[in-house]
Amino acid sequence: MSQAPPPLGTPAVRREGRDKVTGAARYAAEHTPPGCLYGRIVPAAVARGRVLAVDTADALALPGVRAVLTHHDAPRLAEPDDPILAVLQDDRVPHRGWPVALVVAETPEAADAGVEALHVAYEAERHDVRLTPDHPGLYTPDTVNGGYPAVRERGDTDRALAAAPVLIDSTYTLGALHNHPMEPHATTAWRDGDGHLTVHDSSQGATPVRDSLAAAFGIPPGRITVRSEHVGGGFGSKGTPRPQCVLAVMAALRTGHPVKVVLSRRQMAALVGHRAPTVQRVRLGAELDGTLTVVDHDVATHTSTLKEFVEQAAVPARVMYGSAAGRTAHQVVALDVPSPSWMRAPGETPGMYALESAMDELASALGMDPVELRLHNDPAHEPDSGRPFSSRGLTACLETGAARFGWYGRDPSPAAREEGQHLVGTGVAAATYPVYISSSGAFAHAAPDGSYRIGVNATDIGTGARTVLAQIAADALATSLDNVRTEIGSSELPDAPVAGGSTGTASWGWAVHKACVLLRRRLREHTGPLPADGLTVTTDTREETGRDSPYARHAFGAHFAEVAVHARTGEVRLRRMLGVFAAGRILNPRTARSQFIGGMTMGVGMALTESSTMDPAFGDFTERDLASYHVPACADVPRIEAHWIDEDDPHLNPMGGKGIGEIGIVGAAAAVANAVRHATAVRVRDLPITPDTLLPYLL
Question: Does the pLDDT of residue 2 top 90, yes or no?
Fold first, then answer.
C-alpha cells in the first residue's frame, strides 16, 4: 500500500471553495442583523476648502431616513492612529471625496434619496493636485514606506557617472493606480445590550481594525470583536482600517441599531488609497563588457496633506545588481489629493519597472543580450548592506525562464519580426521582493476524538490561507489534512498581522507550526485519556521574529513576455507570458500558482490598460469605475504560465517559505514594455502603453 503524500507541499484544494461558489461564505456586507440600517457617505464636492453649512431638513423629512451625521454632531473621536479615520470631526475638506456627512436610513434606497436631498455649502480654496518633477513643494522625507531611509549612497556616484564608458540616463513616469478588489469596502457594526461592539469588516486584518477602533472610540479592545472571515480581495487597499468602518460604528452608536456602510465603486478612488504617481530618473553606468559601475535612481512622488506616505520605489535598486557606486533617493510633495497607500508590492512594482526598463536600454546600448546582462551583474552579497543572501535564485529563474520561453531563438534586432500587420517582440525583466515576517499568535487544540483545531486571526483575502495553514498544522502534528480544522478571521482568536506584504503565511504559519509542535510534545507527555475539553496550547513568535537576521532575505523572479503590436492602430496585445520564481519552499502548488498568475496579470494591466488620471481642474481621479479603469480580462492574458525553482532556504522560518503574493507583479510591467520596444523599436517610458501614446511613433 502506498503512503499518502505529506500534507505540506501538495496541491490541496481550497477548503472554502465550495462555500464561495454556493454563496455560503458570508462577506462583510452580507451580514444583516435584525433592525439593520444603511449608511451612505456624502462625499465632499470641492478639492480643498471648508464646509460652511449642512442643511439636513429635507433629508430628514424623507420616509425611512433615521439620521444624518455631520461634523457638528458626530461622535467625537480620540486622535486615531491614522488621520484618514478622523472623519466628521471638523469642517476641513482635505480632498475631493472626503466624507462630509453620513445619511442613515431604513433601506439603501432611502439612504440614497437622503444623500440627494442633503444641502452642503462650501468655502472652496485653491487646490494643487499635480505632481511635477520640479514642483517647489518637493522635499526629502526621513524614511519611506517600510521604514527604509529615503536616501542611501555608497561610493562616489557622481564621479562614477562621469567616468562610465556607457551611460543610460532615462526618466520614467507612471500615473496613479487603484486597487479594485471584486468586493468593495464594507462594514456592518452593532453594539449589544451589554455594550459589546461587533464589527464585520472587509479588511486584510481584523486585529489592527479592532485596535484602531478601540483607540478612536475609547472602548477597551476586549469589548470589541472584529470579524473578517471572507474577504473578496484587497491588494493592499484593505490593509489598514478605512473610513467606512469608523462611520458604521459612529452610526451604530448614535442610532442604537446595527448599521451597514458599503462604499460604491466610484467612492473607492478617494477613500481607500492608491498607488501614487512617480517620476523616476534612472542612470546606469557600465563598462563595455556590461559590468555595472554605478546605479543612480531618483524618485519623485506625491502624498496627501493628511499624512505622509512615500512609496519606496528606489529601494529595489539597493538590492538587485552589484556596482561599485550607487545612490537611491526619494522626494515627495504633499498635494490636495486622497492619501496614497499600499498597492500590491508597493515600491517594488513601480521601482522595478523603471530599473528593469533601464537595464533593457543598457543592454541595447551595449549590444548585449538582456538576460546575459542581468546574469553578468548578479551579486554575491546584497549591495546596500553587504550581507550575504539567505538564498538568491535570480540566476536560476533567468536561465530556467529563458529555456522554457525559447528566449535564445529570437532575433535580437528590434522591429525585425512581422506577421501580417503586426510587429512581434519579446521582452524580459527580473523581479525581487523582500522577505517580511511579523510576530503572530496561534493556538492548537487536540480533541478526545483525535481531531485537531487551530486558530489564528489570519485573513483569507482569496489566497487560500485556511488551506495552507491546515497543511502546516497537519505536517507538524503528523496527521492527515482532513483531521485538522482551521479557525481564522476573528479578533477573538490569537492576534495576528495583516494579510499584506507577503507576510501572511510566513508569519501565521510560524505561529501555527510552533503551537502544533508544542501541542504534540504535550500529547506525548500526557498519560491516560484526554480530558473532555481536550488539550490546548497557545503561543506566539515574538521572540523568534524579534531576532535580527544576519542574512539579506529576498524572493526573486524573472518574467518573459511576447507581444504583438498592430502597425496601423498601435494596439498592443499580449500573446504569451511566462514567469519563473524563487520563493523558498512552495507550500501549496495549486494556490501558489494562482498567486503568481494573479500578480503577473496585474502587471500586464499596469503596462497596457490601467490608469487613474488626475483632473487638475476638478481635483479628482477621472477613472472611478470598471468601465473606465480597465482591469485586464481573460482575453487580455490568453497564455500565461507560472513556474518556480526548488529553493531550500534554512534561514527563513520552519516551513522554509517566502511570501508569494507580491513577487508575481514585480517586473511584469517592464517585461511587457520591453517586449513592445523590441517589437517596434520604440521606447515608451510612460505607462500604460496605449494606442494613442504608441501610434505617433509608428506612422
Answer: no
**Within its chain, how far is the Cα of 506 from the centroid?**
16
Residue 198: partners with Cβ closer than 8 Å, 6 or more residues away: 189, 190, 191, 192, 224, 225, 227
Please check whether residue 88 is in contact with residue 131, taking contact to mean a CB–CB distance below 8 angstroms. Answer: no
Contact 373, 691 (CB under 8 A): no
> Concatenated DSSP letters for 355-408?
HHHHHHHHHHHHT--HHHHHHHT--SB-TTT-PBBS---HHHHHHHHHHHHTGG
Position 27: which residue type? Y
d(CA 557, CA 163): 32
Q: Is the dihedral of CA 101, 104, 105, 111 positive or negative?
A: positive
Q: How far is CA 446 from the centre of its chain?
A: 35
Of the candidates 16, 183, 229, 662, the residue annotated as catalytic is: 662
What amino acid occupies position 100? Answer: V
Q: How many CB atoms lie within 10 A of CB 26?
A: 14
Q: What is the DSSP string of 238-278?
A: TSS--HHHHHHHHHHHHHSS-EEEE--HHHHHHHS--BPPE
Rounded CA separation 646/583 (Å)? 9
CA distances from 354 to 171, 329, 333, 401, 412 (A): 8, 14, 20, 21, 21
CA 695 to the chain's CA centroid? 32
Cα–Cα distance for residue pair 103/98, rounded to 1 Å:
14
HEC-encoded secondary structure of 555-614: EEEEEEEEEEEECCCCCEEEEEEEEEEECECCCCHHHHHHHHHHHHHHHHHHHHCCCECE
Percent of the chain scored above 90 by pLDDT? 98
| pLDDT attached to residue 484 | 98
Backbone angles phi, psi at 537, to 5 degrees: -120, 130
Q: How do 49-55 and 119-124 pair as beta strands? A: antiparallel
> Which value, in Å, is the radius of gyration of the alpha carbons in the chain?
26
pLDDT, tens digit, 9 for 90 and up, residues 5-26 = 778 999 999 999 999 999 999 9
CB contact at 8 A, 474 and 7:
yes
Three-class SS of residue 348?
Answer: helix
Q: CA dihedral in degrees (678, 681, 684, 687; nearest 10)?
A: -30
How distant, in Å, are the alpha carbons of 133, 166, 430 from that of 328? 16, 20, 19
Instruction: State the DSSP code for 98.
Output: -
Active site residue 662: yes
Choose among 275, 249, 274, 268: nearest CA to 260. Answer: 249
Stated pTM of the model: 0.96
Identity at 343, one-letter amino acid code: M
Q: Residue written as cell 474577504?
A: 231
> Does the pLDDT value for residue 389 go beyond 70?
yes
pLDDT tops 90 at residue 502: yes
pLDDT at 4: 66
Strand-pairing partners, residue 381, are 388
The dihedrals phi and psi of 216, each to the nearest 5 degrees, come to -70, -40
Whether the bond into 688 is cis, omega within 30 of 0: yes
Instruction: Name the strands in the sheet holding 278-286, side by side, starting at the edge strand that comes first in the sequence.
Output: 151-154, 325-335, 292-304, 278-286, 166-174, 686-687
Contact 14, 467 (CB under 8 A): yes
pLDDT at 3 over 70: no
Rounded to whole angstroms, how far apart are CA atoms 261 and 88?
15
- Between 243-255 and 206-217, two packed helices, what is the crossing angle to 10 degrees? 50
Number of Cβ within 10 Å of residue 526's Cβ equals 12
Best CA proximity match to 14, nearest among 593, 640, 620 = 593
